[in-house]
């Protein structure tokens, strides 16, 4: 007891905490080291003799003081945190306070920065591209493959030879593969060593993106171009100006206004019967896409469908189908993927919902209102300049959402406050030199914990990187190869793609090339057209696998040698997926009638459209307070924020929805987000049906409550 009391006294001493900090132990490391040190003393049978004597002196007040434990504590801390021995070196390596100094070639020239600021459809990018085309040499850096491809086409059509470079593709304008003086690329692929006359950085506001912001920071600070044309929201002007002040470069701002009027309507759509040609319904989940598209086609209308996980070729075909005046398809159903990268002839944008599921910095799921920036980006797609619609309109599906949408659109866009940074492979290699036994995931953790940034920057989210690092940790790879595999662009929610990366890494580690035949066996190519939604989703995952192979083939050409063959079958797969998307309502019907496992979330034809979090409460009320206690608890996930100013539909309306549809959109959303299991849903349905048969809509007696509890306990047993 005396030992424990004195150890806790040691832990609480401010002087000891200060000494720990001087030796590289911040509050978190100090706490972890103390827990380990205390466990070592209390549970170890072989405490060193000198430590034993010190403890004895302290406990029996024989000239000892708890501060005398510090040398032993520090020795123990260095055993569990080897980095403490080289903390000064590690701090220098992870010092991110002067990013402009990382690009000496750019600092060696005086660059002219021109910021083209304006909303969607204001011509800001057009003016920057005109300068790009008139220059002797130039580079365009965009956020999407579609945008890079568009500039590549535009440039070559204007007889300005231009190469295309994305993570998965290299297309040369010259037949002999000589580099052209112009290049259009995705922003992560831009070179900071090649000199250009003009550089264009598109969508600069993405410099604040939690995952990809570092790429815009790198381009802005590092491109070696006489003129840097930056395009994006005016909200980024102040940050760009401040960043350029640190490089000694001035920013010229050119402001643009929208070229066609955008009108927020005073009425909501209310019903899909009120759709008109040129309408685009924007949904924030794939399930809502499936639901709405089926409801539209049930009314005898054709619709095009665009969402994020579709291949670029399919998105372009769907956009072409919608834009074609001769095509009977006059309605578009899309996610916010239409916000950039596609030229669309939209007359009216209709928000199916104004809440969007997101994942916060801690990895927690949240459902929150869309931001002003997102709303403007999406709404601004209506009434594109040069299209057949010279005026854009925007509204919502539900009247209750329209008031909130107007509030959002009228709010000023929040200024972009900081630019993203990411550790480079060289920095991680230097860390590994000092900490040879640490895993790559641990190296990244230590780097981020020690990194120092000033107020203009932040360290980007490295969760995806760490996920892949942990996944392939057991595979023997050298550090540089391991780092490359961990930066592969994949969706970690796709099990098939993640499993494939694991197999790629394993075979790579054995020095066995990943051949075309191997890939065909793994993906079961050739593949047939999808018969249901589950098969369509799998085809999209296979397309991502082909993308992953191509991405790796440009980094490890010898080990992924069949890029040409893989690109050919990827084009064929794109055609197969296009057929599936054109028949998407048939796939939905097939999924429902066959009750395909994994397609449970595909909703019924007249399913109530997605609403807000407050509707959760209303549906729970319909089910009965007691019977839904577990569901109610599940919904209150820490970190979820309530959507402000959103009115729920009346309980009576929701009761009717529930009677008619059983599996409401809420239930599907909760299933999809992991807040509700199929077992819980079956139990809730069973309880509701029992209540309905008895003519009661609430659990108003003690016996019902007890019976319900007993049934639950039996099921658990």
UniProtKB/TrEMBL annotation:
Name this polypeptide is given: ATP-dependent RNA helicase SUPV3L1, mitochondrial
The protein's required cofactors: Mn(2+); Mg(2+)
Organism listed in the record: Eurypyga helias
Region (Disordered): 687-717
GO-annotated cellular components: mitochondrial degradosome
Family as reported in the entry's similarity comment: Belongs to the helicase family.
EC number: 3.6.4.13
Sequence ranges assigned to domain Helicase C-terminal in this UniProt record: 264-429
Gene Ontology MF, one: ATP binding
């Amino acid at each position: 007891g005396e030992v424990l009391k004195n150890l806790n006294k040691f832990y609480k001493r401010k002087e000891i905490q200060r000494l720990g900090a001087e030796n590289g132990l911040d509050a978190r490391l100090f706490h972890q080291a103390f827990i380990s040190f205390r466990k070592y003393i209390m549970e170890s049978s072989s405490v060193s003799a000198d430590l034993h004597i010190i403890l004895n002196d302290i406990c029996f007040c024989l000239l000892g003081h708890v501060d005398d434990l510090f040398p032993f504590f520090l020795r123990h801390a260095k055993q569990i945190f080897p980095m403490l021995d080289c903390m000064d070196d590690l701090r220098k390596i992870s010092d991110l306070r002067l990013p402009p100094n990382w690009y000496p070639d750019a600092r060696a020239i005086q660059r002219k920065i021109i910021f083209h600021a304006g909303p969607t459809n204001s011509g800001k990018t057009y003016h920057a591209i005109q300068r790009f085309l008139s220059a002797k040499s130039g580079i365009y850096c965009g956020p999407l493959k579609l945008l890079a491809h568009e500039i590549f086409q535009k440039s070559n059509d204007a007889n300005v030879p231009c190469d295309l470079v994305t993570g998965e593709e290299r297309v040369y304008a010259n037949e002999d593969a000589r580099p052209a003086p112009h290049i259009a690329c995705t922003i992560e692929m831009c070179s900071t060593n090649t000199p250009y006359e003009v550089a264009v950085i598109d969508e600069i506001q993405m410099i604040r993106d939690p995952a990809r912001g570092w790429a815009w920071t790198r381009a802005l600070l590092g491109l070696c171009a006489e003129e840097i044309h930056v395009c994006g929201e005016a909200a980024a002007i102040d940050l760009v100006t401040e960043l350029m002040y640190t490089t000694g470069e001035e920013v010229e701002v050119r402001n643009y206004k929208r070229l066609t009027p955008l009108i927020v309507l005073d009425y909501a759509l209310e019903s899909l019967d009120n759709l008109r040609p040129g309408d685009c319904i924007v949904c924030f989940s794939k399930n809502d896409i499936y639901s709405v598209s089926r409801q539209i086609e049930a009314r005898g209308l054709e619709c095009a469908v665009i969402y994020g996980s579709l291949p670029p070729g399919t998105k372009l075909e769907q956009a072409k189908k919608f834009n074609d005046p001769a095509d009977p398809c006059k309605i578009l159903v899309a996610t916010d993927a239409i916000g950039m990268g596609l030229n669309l002839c939209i007359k009216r944008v209709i928000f199916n919902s104004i809440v969007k599921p997101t994942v916060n910095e801690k990895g927690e799921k949240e459902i929150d209102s869309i931001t002003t920036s997102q709303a403007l980006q999406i709404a601004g797609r209506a009434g594109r300049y040069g299209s057949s619609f010279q005026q854009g309109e925007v509204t919502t599906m539900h009247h209750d959402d329209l008031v909130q949408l107007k509030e959002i659109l009228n709010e000023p866009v929040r200024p972009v406050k900081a630019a993203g940074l990411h550790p480079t492979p060289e920095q991680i290699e230097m860390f590994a030199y000092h900490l040879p036994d640490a895993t790559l995931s641990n190296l990244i953790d230590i780097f981020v914990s020690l990194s120092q940034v000033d107020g203009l920057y932040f360290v980007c989210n490295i969760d995806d990187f760490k996920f892949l690092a942990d996944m392939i940790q057991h595979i023997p790879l050298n550090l540089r190869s391991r780092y490359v595999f961990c930066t592969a662009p994949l969706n970690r929610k796709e099990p098939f793609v993640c499993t494939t990366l694991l197999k790629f890494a394993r075979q790579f580690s054995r020095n066995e090339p990943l051949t075309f035949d191997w890939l065909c066996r793994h993906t079961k190519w050739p593949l047939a057209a999808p018969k249901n939604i589950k098969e369509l989703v799998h085809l999209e995952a296979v397309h991502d696998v082909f993308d992953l192979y191509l991405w790796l083939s440009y980094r490890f050409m010898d080990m992924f040698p069949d890029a040409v063959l893989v690109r050919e079958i990827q084009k064929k797969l794109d055609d197969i997926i296009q057929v599936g998307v054109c028949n998407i309502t048939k796939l939905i019907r097939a999924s429902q009638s066959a009750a395909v496992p994994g397609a449970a979330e595909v909703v019924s034809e007249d399913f109530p459209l997605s609403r807000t979090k407050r509707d959760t409460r209303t549906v729970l009320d319909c089910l009965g307070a007691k019977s839904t206690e577990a569901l109610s608890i599940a919904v209150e996930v820490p970190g979820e924020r309530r959507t402000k100013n959103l009115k729920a539909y009346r309980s009576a309306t929701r009761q009717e929805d529930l009677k008619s549809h059983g599996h409401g959109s809420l239930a599907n959303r909760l299933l999809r987000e992991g807040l509700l299991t199929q077992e819980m849903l079956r139990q809730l349905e069973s309880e509701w049906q029992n209540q309905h048969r008895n003519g009661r809509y609430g659990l108003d007696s003690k016996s019902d409550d007890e019976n319900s509890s007993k049934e639950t306990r039996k099921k658990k047993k």
